[in-house]
Write a structure and sequence with these properties.
Helix content is about 70%, strand content about 0%. The chain has about 160 residues and is mainly α. The chain folds into 2 domains: about 60 residues; about 60 residues, Arc Repressor Mutant, subunit A. It starts with a helix and ends in a 9-residue tail after the last helix.
Length: about 160
């Protein structure tokens, strides 16, 4: 083993010198990058710190400060069997019996297709009755129509 090292002594010397020169080169490169560009590195680090601070601050400011509180209440539903249809309002708004049927089925939660099947009419007829009801009740949606009809006593309050 010692003989092999003696044969390659010159080669090992050159390899060691190359390694030392490479380390010296790396040290000089490091010195050039770090020591010569100190200002730029410090400015970059400060910019990154301000960026992180800005993100943290934005999250703190824009976080909603609302708390969800769940309140449980007992609601008593009184069956109102003494419902009387408001005929005067029906006449005043000129709502037909068929339109009233469509409105009642809407309040039961049926879709237009289901209403058409139940009344044995076409889907377009149900849509026409719905559009006329919305006009006569001065609303834009089914839920508004049902709510308005209940207020005007065209539908029982327990329906829907």
């Amino acid at each position: 083993m010692l003989q092999k090292l003696k044969r390659h002594k010159e080669l090992l010397g050159y390899a060691l010198m190359m390694a030392v020169l490479m380390l010296l080169l790396r040290w000089l490169e490091f010195r050039f990058l770090i020591l010569e560009h100190q200002f730029e590195i410090y400015v970059g680090l400060i910019a990154v710190l301000f960026l992180l601070f800005g993100i943290w601050l934005a999250n703190k400011i824009t976080k909603p400060k609302e708390k969800t509180i769940i309140v449980e209440k007992e609601i008593r539903i009184v069956a109102n069997d003494d419902f009387v249809l408001n005929e005067a309002e029906l006449d005043f708004r000129k709502i037909s019996k068929r339109e009233l049927e469509v409105l009642t089925l809407m309040a039961e939660g049926l879709s237009n297709n289901e209403i058409a099947e139940r009344l044995f009419v076409s889907l377009n007829t149900v849509k026409t009755h719905s559009a006329k009801l919305f006009e006569k009740l001065e609303v834009k949606r089914r839920t508004q129509a049902i709510e308005t009809a209940k207020k005007l006593r065209l539908l029982p309050p327990t329906l829907g």
